Amino acid sequence: MEARDIPMVPVYFSSSSSGMVRSFAQRLQRPVFDLTKREVRQSVPDGPWVLLTPSYVTGNPLNDTIPEPARRFLSRPRTRRLMVGVMGSGNRNFGAHYQAACRYIARASGRPVLFEFELQGTPEDVAEARRILAELDRRMAGLTKPGQSRTSTR
Prior knowledge:
Elements: E1 11-13, H1 20-26, E2 32-34, H2 38-41, E3 49-54, H3 68-73, H4 77-82, E4 83-90, H5 100-109, E5 113-118, H6 123-140
Parallel strand pairs: 1-2, 1-3, 3-4, 4-5
């Protein structure tokens, strides 16, 4: 199977008005869906998907970090079951809250943190996220096993 024939796992993302996460998502060169749009939030993915979320510090420790659009999208059991990983954007100035949403969602769902980056990410971050997602695509298509790259001789 050629790379262009492998289905791409879509990325569902939540982004604030700053648009930093949206910018990162749009540079991934794959289907992306904006959870700030009501019709996207109310949909259910057709298959495996990845969440891309920022972390926030609101000043309310009971409501910190997870954006409301992501929280609402994850409220459906089927949507949660289909999620295969989490990616996060954060700001190191948030200290202990850096990547808190991504890490909390991964821990609570039992899904892996696939990638973390700061703010809108660098070109190198985008390239690495693309590589990770392409490997995930191959794994989901049954072409590789976890921990095995396509160039592995195992």
